[in-house]
Amino acid sequence: MLRLLTIVAVALTFASAFMLYRVKYDTRLLEAQFHARERAYEKKQDDAAVLKAEKAYLSRPERIEALARKLGLEPIREQQYVRLDELGEPGDGDARPGPRR
After folding, report:
1. Residue 26 lies inside a defined structural domain of this protein
2. Which pLDDT score, from 0 to 100, does residue 95 have?
């Protein structure tokens, strides 16, 4: 009986060691996946910050004004504003009032 108990104890010890190894391996794998996703998330945040800064740089009014002037565009004049009631109903032909320039 004592020999059977010893064999069972040794078998349980080996099974416990194997399970502990397996849990440790799975934990390291999950930790590696977590860190990879965390790095990817941080990279996406950095990319978003760069895009925000780039958008702010590209949408500066003085830059847009210079580009518009190169294209021959000019600021809107007071005569170009139209009230909604002056437009008429859709389908009434040319709904634009008077000359645009």
Report:
1. yes
2. 52
- Whole-angstrom CA distances from 63 to 4, 11, 67, 73 are 87, 77, 6, 13
Q: Name the residue range of residue 80's domain.
A: 17-84
Please state, for a pLDDT cut of 90, what percent of the chain lies above it: 70
Answer yes or no: is 76 within a domain.
Answer: yes
Domain count, the chain: 1
Asked whether residue 62 is domain-assigned, the answer is: yes
Element (H, E) at 70: helix 61-70
Q: How far is CA 64 from CA 1, 15, 55, 72, 80, in A?
A: 92, 71, 12, 12, 20
Average pLDDT over residues 25-46: 98
Q: Say what the pTM is.
A: 0.54
Please tell me the predicted confidence (pLDDT) of residue 101: 45
Q: Is the dihedral of CA 10, 11, 16, 22 positive or negative?
A: positive
